[in-house]
Each structure stands twice: as C-alpha cells, then as structure tokens.
Records
---
Amino acid sequence: MPNNIRLTRLFPAKPSVAISIAASIVILSLSACGGGSSGGYASTPTPTPVTPPVVVLPAVDVSAIAAADPGSPLAAAWQKGAFMEIYVRGYKDSDGDGKGDLKGVIQSLDYLKDLGIKGIWLMPITRSQDKDHGYAVSDYRNIEADYGSLTDFDELIKQAHARGIGVIIDYVMNHSAAENPLFVNSSASATNTYRSWYVWQAVAPTGWSIYGGNPWKTVASGAYFAPFWDQMPDFNLKNQTVIDYHKDNLRFWLNRGADGFRFDAVGNLVENGANAWEDQPENYPIMGQIHSLVNSYSQRYMVCEAPADPAGFTAPTACGSAFAFNLASNIGKAARNEVAGISAVSDFFKTASSNMATMVSNHDLFAGERLWNQVGGNLAQYKLAAATYLLQPGTPFIYYGEEIGMAAAANLSGDGKIRTPMSWTADNNNAGFTTGTPFRPVAANVSTQNVLAQLADPNSILAFYKAMLKLRNSLPSIAQGSYEAAFVSGSVMGYQRTFGNERTLVLINYGTNTANVSVSSLPASANLNNAFPTDGAATSADSSGTAQIAMAAQSVRVFVIK
C-alpha cells in the first residue's frame, strides 16, 4: 500500500486531532481609591480561577480475545488455488445506494465458483475514516457501515465455505486512522496512557523524507509519525503491548471463521532513523509472531505486502508468503514479447519460493496499470499474461475485473481510476453494478468487456480464465507442483511441473510467428497428452526424452506426461 500520492489525493485536509485545553482565566479586581492610607491602593483580592473545561476522551476497546478456532471446512491446499482480490465498495451493490457491500459479494459467489476461484481477498472492510479504500482504520472490530454488519460478514463466510471458497481480509497493522479512539487518546497529552502506542517526538525531527514528503506532523501535544497520510499515524510496534493488541484483533476475526489475512505495508512497521525506515530487522520477527498466531488456527493462510523485499518476508520466520512485485511487471513484458521479460519470468521460480503470491496488477498504481491498459487492449497478449501467472507456481491473485479485461476509467486519475465499479453489464451508466448512481465512474471499456457479454462468448477473456483455472484446479501438479527444466527458446517459454506421480509440461509462445520447439528433459519415450487445448494428436518423446512440438503464434499448450 505505500503510495503517498494515492492517499493525499483522495481526501480533504485533515480534521484537527489535537486536543487543547483552555488556560485558566484569572479575574483581578481593584478596589476604588480612598479609605486606608493616604493615596494608597486597596489590597488586591485573591484571584478566582475559572474551572477549565472537562475534556472527555473516547473510550477504547483493547480487551483480550482468547483463541476459539471454529475449524475449517475447506479442502487441503485450498490456498494454492486462485484468489480474487475484491474492492467491496466497487464490486456489487445489493441495495441501490451506489456503493458495493458484503451482501453484493454474497450474491456474486456462484459467479466466482463457476470461474474457478478458491479464495477471496477482501480489501479493508473494517470501519474507516477515509470511507473509501479503508486503510485508515477507525475500528478494528467492526464492519464499515456502508458494507453491512458483522452478521453479513458471518453469512459471507458461511456461504463462501459452502462453495469451497476461503475468505481472507485485509489487515492494517502499521497505522490506524487519526480518528481511531486510540490515537485520539494518544494525542491528548504526553502523559496519556496510550501515548506510547504511537510514534511521537516532542519536536518534529529534521532530515526526513518518505515518498517525497515529511512524515512528521506537528500538533499541540507534539509531533507524530505518519508517512502515508497525516490522517494515518503509525503505531509504535517496538511496543509489544501494541503487537499483542493486534493479535487480539486477529483472533476476533479468526474466531468468526475468517480464513486468514492480507497484511498491508509490512516493510514499514518499524523506523530506526531518517535513512532506516523500510524493511528494518525488527519487522521480520514481528510478522513471524503473527504468522505463528495465524498458523495456530486450522487451514488458515496469510500473505504480506512488502514491495522492497518480497523474498525476505516469504520466509517462514516472517510472513510465509508475500506478493511477487518483482515478477508482475515482467509478466506484462513477456506478454508483449519482450525478450528480457520472457527470460525474467522463466528464471523467477528457479530460486523464488513457491509460496510467493503472483499477480499482474492490483489496487495500487505503483504495482502497475490494469492489465488491459498494460497491453493496449491486445486480446492475444492479455491471454498470454493470464496463462503466465495462472500456470506457474505460487498463489495467483486476480484483481477483480481482470478476468473480463476491465480497463481503467477514462476520466479519472490516480488509484481511483483502477478502483471503479465492476463491469457486470454493458450499461455505460452503472455497469450493472447498482440500481442507483455509482459512487465512481465505470470502466472505459464497459460496453465490450463485461461479464454478461463474455459469458456467451467461448473465445472471451472470461472463457480463457475459466480454462486456465480448470487446469489449476484439476491438475495438482499445476497448483502445487515443482518447477523443473525451465527454458526459453526464442519467444517460447517452457517448464515442467511435478506433484506425486503427475507430471505436466507447459509451453507458451509469446511470439507472433509459429515456432517449432525441441523440448528435452522428458522421460524416455513419454506420451504427451493434450490437456490444453484438448484437440489435436498426442505427441511423444523419443528414447532420449526429447520431443518436437509445433507452437502456433501467441499460443499456450499444456500436456500431461505419461
């Protein structure tokens, strides 16, 4: 999430969070001249103080939550299936107020199941100050009012589980909203009980610059640290009490049946100086504590956002999984037949953990434009990019609308243009997202790239996504297998996946010309049976384990090796 441009753009100037107490007013009265000694003044009376106003600080809820694991009905290794990243405000509106909600997500579960989705990542659904992206959390234990209630959340978990789909939720551990009662208390004075829960200095330090701005914000009681937005102050995560508070919040959701979490901005948890504020040594064991907590519940999964060090946070002593930001841009390059991109994609999982999470775009522009915009609407390239991340190791995350080729909004800028209402129909006014007026303009290509139109088209992007996810869901080697014998030959990338006794071969030709490829490292005289596409004659390897395979331009082929 580190993207100060996004955060400062979306919201108005901050409301005051400093609490000031009026100074006592002392009234002095002087007696009239005369009486007493000649020419003298009357004696000055004792000053009368005026009682200062009583400042009532909001109550905080830091109550302990004990673990109560309800278990998991999900299949083993469910988290190796594909996830859909859902921006709830922009997904499906169930009540016509123009904003998406949890009931709208429930109404969409059959669509997600039919697509082949095994997990859902809900962007922040807790109550927030920003009322938009949700990363300024004002209440960690309740649902954003626009989205519904805890009862709606419980129903979503129940209905998703009934369809074999897990649900993870976004959790913001690095910072809260300035309106969060904890920060309001913390900002009241230097002696407040919760002062040490946030990062404070008596006077703002100098020499700091993060994302092009000064992260220190001065108010009446001192200076607090808020690098993303002045309304999102950082927690002091050197304070174990604060970490324990977050653990209680996580148990609150895990006890309700949540299947895990996506953690925001884990590279920013601890700061040790103006030049030591990202990926500090303390961050990894902090997330290791959280990983242990999540793993203490059955069949749970967590993934972290750490753009500067995905591999480091994928370690089991840290998050156990992190987004492969360093792979995402190369997938688009490979799809456009750029040689460096093809080589980078081929090499990535030779060393990277198979627990990494893959993607081609997400809700932040710093991660890349929507895929449609990356490839300029080229349908063949779009499908090649989809095949690339859906067939490789890792856990793939599909940003909502990616499965139909949604574009950014034409008349918006910043992150808002890639967080538009989901294109369910061709309606240029509401995209079938709502019966009311959408909270934001719809995608630029809604008239052609929408669910309703593509459900009837066997050659659509949606149909291609279904085919790729069917492979992932039906072939354990694709979802969970090793990554072996990877090679690049011209514009063709190939590799083998093995799980148990099942072995598959994946070939992708990114080029615009037909290619004849020599594939080695196969079992001697093995039969290569077509898994995708399913038509065409079977191919065999010779006695040395080499097969000659013709690849059409911009095509994908998957074989089961027998």
---
Amino acid sequence: MKNRYFFLLVVTLLAMNGCKHKIAIKYPLAKKVDTVDNYFGTKIADPYRWLENDTSAETAAWVRAENAATNDYLSKIPFRDKIRERLTRIWNYPRYGVPFKEGSCYFYFKNDGLQNQSVLYVKKGLEGEARVLLDPNKFSADGTIALAGTSVSHDGKYLAYSIARSGSDWNEVQVMEIESGRVLPDTLEWVKFSGMSWQNSGFYYSRYDAPKKGMEFSKKNEFQKVYFHTVGTSQREDKLIYQNLKYPQRNYGAAVSEDQRFLILYESESTSGNAIYCRDLSKPAMPFRQLTEGFDYEYHVVDNVGDKLLVVTNNKAPRKKLVMVDPADPGQGRWKTLIPEREDVLESVSLAGGVLVAEYMQHASSRAFLYNPDGKVLHEMNLPGIGTMAGFSGKKGENVAFYGYSSFTFPLTTYKYDLSQNKSDVFNRPEIDFDPELYEVKQVFYPGKDKTRIPMFIVHRKGMKLNGANPTLLYGYGGFNINLTPNFSLGRLLFLENGGIYAVANLRGGGEYGEEWHKAGTKERKQNVFDDFIAAAEYLVAEKYTSPAHLAIMGGSNGGLLVGACMTQRPELFRAAIPQVGVMDMLRYHKFTIGWAWASDYGTSETKEGFDYLVKYSPLHNIREGVEYPATLAFTADHDDRVVPAHTFKFMATLQAKQKGNNPVLVRIETKAGHGAGKPTAKQIDEAADLWSFLFYNLGMTFK
C-alpha cells in the first residue's frame, strides 16, 4: 500500500511538472511555395523562399503574427516582470571604457547605468575636468541610432565618428571640431566594415556604391573602395585611393602609421587571411607596393620603427609571431623575427613607453609580457587572474598606459599601468549589486568525440551539489578564428544567483590554440565543432553537473548555426535551445550581403564537394518530421544585414510545421535592431528579460 501511494505521488508530481510547461500556442500559418533547387542532381525544396524578401507585405505580416504568438507565450510566464525588475536593478551602475590619448587630451566612454548608449568624454590631461564630447543618446529618442566607431585626429583637433541606424552595418560618418564641439557639414554615406584613419586634416575610409532602393539590407556587398576625405569638403570631392574592379568580392581597408609616414592597405576575400600593401606617404608620387601575396596567412601591421614595419603574422607560425619587414625590400627571406612563435597564442602587440607589449592567450585566458625593441623578454604583466585583457592603450614615448580586464563574475575594470615600473593601479572599478565571492570559476578539459582535448569554463555558486539536477546553460561559438575568453554579462548574473550553472566550451573552429585549431573546424571538418559541443554537453551530464532535462544551449551568429545543428542532430540531449541571429540555411548563405566572405570557413554549395558536406548539417535542411525538438526561442532582428533574418524566418517556419509534442518553438524578432552592435540598453534589458524568463520556465527554475 505504501509503495502504491509513492507511485501515485510520483505520477501526480510528474503530471503537475508537465502542465507547468504547457502554455497553449497557436503558431501562425506560413504558406508554402513550390520552389525547388537542383544541386548536382539532388533536388532540395525551399517552401519558405518567400520569407527571404524582407521588405514584402507578406513577410511583414508573418513577422507581426510570430511576434504576437511569442509575446502571448512570454506574457503568461508568472515571473517575467520580476526578472525584468531584477535585470534593471543590476544593470544600473556606472561603467567606464578604457581611456585613450590623442594630442594633449584623454578620451573615454561612460554609461551612468541605464543610458541607452554610452557617452564619449574628453579632458585635457589626466587631471583635467571631464566634459561631454559626444552624447549618442541625443541621436534618437529610443536609442536606436548608435555610435558605431570613433577616430580622433593625431593633433586632437577633430573627431570623426560613424553612426548606425537600427543596428544596420551601414554607417554614416560625421566630423566634429573637438575644441568647440561643433559638428561640421561633412557627411559620408554607404560606409560599411570600415575604420577611419587620419592623415593630417583628413582620413581614409572604405565604402560601397549606393545599393538599389529596397535592397539595402539583403543585396550582396561588392566592389568595396578606399577613399580619402578632407575635412570641410563634400563626399563628392573625396579622392579615390584604391579599387579593384577585377575582384568584386574582396574587402579593402586602410590604416596610417602613428607618425603618419606609411599608409597600409589591407586586402581580403574572406574572414581569415589577407594581403598587405604599403605606400610611403613621405614620397607622394610613390604607388602602393605589395608586401605579401595570397590569402593563406594573416598579417597585421602594428606600427613602424623608423623605415621598418612591425608585423604580427601566422605565416609559418600558426600561433603567431612578430616580424620586422622592410617595405623597400619585403621579401620573406629578409624578414627579421623579433618575437618568435611560442606555445601560447600571440593575440596582439602594442608599442608603448619604448617597449613592446605582447598580449597572449593561454588556454583561452589572457597573459601579457613586455619585450625590449630587440625582442628580449623584460617581464610578465601581473594580471588579476583568469580573465580577459582588453583595450590596451598607450603611446610610444610615454610610460603611462591603460587597459581593461574582466571575467565571468568580474565586471570590466580599467587599470592605469606604469610601463617602467611594471605596476598596475585600479583606475575605475564598478560597484555592482552582485557578490562575486559567492561564485567560483574553474576550467576543465574534456575529451571530444575523436579524443581531442577541449577546454571548458564552468561557473556556479560555491558549494553547489553535483546531483545531475542543476539547471545549466552551455554556450559556444566555434568559428572564424574567434576566441571565447572569460567575459562579463549582466543578464547571466541573474541565472547564476538563482542556482544556474554556466559553461563555455572552447570548440575547434575558434582561435584558442591558433590557426590549426581554427582550420580543424572549417569546411568539411565543420562537424568537429558540433561534435565538440555535444561532447561538452555529455561531459556535463556524465559529471552530474546536470542532465538532459535541465540542460540548455545558446549561441549567436555562427554560434546560432552551432545551436541549430546540435539541436537537430541530438534533440534528446537538450531541454531548451536559444539560437541567436544564426546562419541556418547553409546552401544559400553566400547569396546575401557579406555572406560570400564566410566561404573560407564554410565552403559553399556552388561546388559539389561543398554541397555534399553542407547539406548534411545545415540546420534548415535537417529538421525532421515528427521529432520532438527542445523548447526553442530563436532571436533575430529586422535590420540584421549581416546574417539576414531570412535564415531564422525559414528555420522557425519549418520547425513549427514539423515539431512534435508540446515543447514551444518560438521566434522573437526585434524591430529597429540588427546583428547586435549598438543595441540600446532598454532593448537589451527587454531581450534579456524574455530570454531568461523562457529559460527559467522551461528548465523548471523558480525565480527568487
């Protein structure tokens, strides 16, 4: 009798738990069209092709209906408002960027807490009185016009700044006179993937020709050109510096050395590998001279020392080295190695205070060393611990520099650094409504499917019991040589303080161990990335951190592809999935905006070899009828012109049509937003509230 009572109690509790996750959803009906593509004899249906037209009335109606269904579901989560209140409270603290100097002035960004956009301040000397130089919050009432980039002239007289509307990658550039704060008439349009590099009273920048009306956010970006703009003139008068009509799908950018002697031109045709050209500006008649050929390796010019250039490269050094190149005689046989390749990955080199400051990555965490100009190690910088160094800023002839440092439970803190004494002092440390001492960060190494040793960070409250029942969020990226190092996230704090475990897997495809690690997750080897992520999930389950019933996965952009591939390959392993602005249609990704540049990582369906491996994992094409997929909340935005929203639209329309069972499969489509950059604080909090409400609810968590 006692056993029977226990059995009935268990059944009742399970039923109650199941009901908790059953909010009724009526998905919008998406029409199907008879569109079929033939790839080397294989016919692939694309019934939601019409959703690629992001400006059509039909697509707009579908977006409204999807958002209505998602909002209806989220509104029924009982603690959604409390989560938003908590997020607003912990978000509200002053935070500072790393100071940088031009001329006699220091510049830095500051956000008072809930300002939609951070404000740029300037002061004369470190002890001078700070004043607001540029407040992007005045660009628009809702904060959706953001500051995308800044560049100060070498004499500190002018500020060139780019703005982005609604999160688009398209920028407009304007110029301000710093002393008076007067915005000049100069306005440059159709600027994209470009910096602004000053030479005297003008700057170099890159732009495209104006796209056809209605195609601004989807048309391929081709024929990028480099121009020089002189302050006080119109864009029509800008001087064309470089174009290459023979290769429309190549990108070009220009940078001037600190002493304004050399102009460096960067040429690339994908997201990895580039060629560099150089022009000696002290000899105006001299044309560009090519210093490196092909796109197999990466080259970044740090600066010049006299008539020589310092270049960081992975040529014959997968984990990178620093070499000295003579632009008048650039043959590789005459390069001088100053800092040779070592076991750790060389991320960057800066010139400051008469020394070389080299930032390294060791097992996805920062280290830094000082070298003399001949490449001899002087000493290691004393960094605060496991974390990420960012924004090192210093000048060649000055001993004072600045840098930022952060970790999972450690918000970005800025440090003033004395290079001659190797001494760091806190410059700005934020105070937040969160006690980091209650939590621990550890790094584990787990075996991948092929026994590759893969690092993973795990963050949770100290003393947590590993009983297999802890709600856990696993995050990953695994692509484009990008590193996932310890970073700080306000929204994640809420998950941790409510008993969650956060894990970050450093998958192949990233750059955590150099170019070989990157290449091991590209093209026909891309499945390694998904296998590494699945192995991370299986490790967390095997070590009793969690179980499939309590495990969620999340990733953005290429990480959205990662989530889409893993949830379709192993749906039973995850309780919830959050793909953000993901690349979901691997057969057509290269046909939109800058997608063609990703071919070095993905390959394309234009070749049979590429089609054969892409179709095997493309998330859109691997959704099966009658399978119960994890509870899914996908994120995209109407102005995302990098990973166009059609990827998510088509993926979610297909998932909703084929999903079996009661797990919700919803999409949140942000308006007046893009791929993520420049998103105002108000939208960030709203998005975070919806994300964490969905995860808490579907992982069975109780918000405290």
